[in-house]
From TrEMBL:
Alphabetized Gene3D superfamilies for the sequence: Phosphatidylinositol (PI) phosphodiesterase
Domain of life: Bacteria
Record protein name field: Glycerophosphodiester phosphodiesterase
InterPro entries linked: GP_PDE_dom, PLC-like_Pdiesterase_TIM-brl
Amino acid sequence: MMKLIRSLYSIYMLVGLLILLVMNCASVETPNRLRKDIDLQGHRGARGLKPENTWPAFEEAIKYKMVTLELDTVLTKDKRIVIHHDSETNPVICQNADGSEIQKKSLYDLTLAELQTLDCGKKQNPSFPKQVPVPGTKLLSLEEFFDLVQKHEKKSKEVYEFNIETKFPDDESAPDSLVKEHTEKLIQVIEKYKVVDRSTIQSFDLRTLTVSKQKNPKIKTSALFVPTYFQGFLMTIGFGNGYRESIITKAKEKQADIISPYFLYVTPKFVKSSHDKGMMVIPWTVNAEKEMNRLVSCGVDGIISDYPDLLDKVVPRKN
């Protein structure tokens, strides 16, 4: 999935530079936002700056005043919620504590304790040259994450929001029982730490949203969408409104509070239509200054970026 997304991003940005004027939102009246302020979200903490989905990355997001900490979760063999993007171990970003290479292995076959023997901070992700390694960094359970955040909040008197994604195998082969179990355990932890009003559960697997709404309708839900190559190309050259309307309909059918598409979907009409249906718009993953500015002019409610430092610099905030 990530190789696909990186390829999409490179292709679309190259083509998009040639036709940006076609999609420019600046000349269109910005619709009223549903939030007072723009929701700045550090993707996987701050993947462009520190090892993804680790405490150093979340600290980096906090440093650059992100409103929301965005993270991924997988259910382990011993039914714990671990903060990790892939449903398999990732040799690109993690290694054994002794420095030896790891092999891909399903997280469903590993306990949290086994996963926490890995060093997921020493390797620099080659896709992010600005990323600074933090040797010895361990993976976190969701409970450990909330413990660390609450310690920081108590000390700093600041309060953060959380955008928590459920991850399953990329081929969407997860059985209904796994989706249900993962989502329900995630909600149990959110409730335990009393952050229901500050949490969003997001997923590409929209079954997650259904389970969440049934289990605790007070928790916000966000529907994630990524285009195919062909859909992305059409949207890049100014077409594809049918695809935009389709995902808005799907998100609304799932009673999503937020629609969170790949940024190419977003136009002023897309934002207005989503707002008219009572949904906020928070696109991902936005790593270019020009695109951040375009999205702000479209009236989005938030932006998810690998680079909280750039997001903090570019996106204006309301006082």
